[in-house]
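Quick log. Single chain, no ligands specified.
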Amino acid sequence: MIRNPCSQALATLALAGALYSAGPVAAQIAGGTTTVDISVIQSTQIAMGWSVKKNLLGKTIYNDAGQKVGKVEDLIISPDKNVSYVIVGAGGFIGIGRHDVAIPVTQIQDGVGKLVMPGATKDMIKSMPEFTYANDTAKRDQFVAAAEKDIVNGKAKLADLENKAGVATTDVKARIDLQISALQVDVKSAEAKLTEMKQATTIRWREFEAGVSAATARLRKSIETATT
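-> predicted structure:
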């Protein structure tokens, strides 16, 4: 198990008295009266371990040369509970283009106050298979459906404006034509961004999410401001 020297020292002091007692200690489950027996040794191991919140999440991972190679984005416990993984993000900017991979937590070491993965490089991490959550495909499908709905609404609004332009007076028609032109641009932009995302592999769809979101937001605004 990975150990933090500071946490270990504090845990040793806090549990020194408990080590004199024999047998298990009882831990109460929140919201009920059920108890779970935890031995003194197990309690010591738990206290000496790393806190996910304080020591892992959001922390930068370095290699043994002191170079940044990624950041811990999540912690995954395998179904059989035998191995835990840190989800490490490498590269990208504010989440765009980031490459997430799953690395066994046993490969991460405590380097005197910072996380160290010996021998690692950004290129090595990027070459590993990208990690995606089991429900990520469902989120992608929902996102695509919402974007497609915006595009359908945009095309419906275009048809409505074109019908109105056909019977409008000269001055009104000129104003509607300007709205039609602007709306056509926004519809085409949203379609292009969505097509680009669809052509990418499923695991890379989030790299295009921001672009599609911006395009559909402009489209919705155009629909709202167009002549009713």
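The beta strands are 25-28, 35-38, 60-62, 68-77, 84-90, 99-104, 109-110, 115-116.
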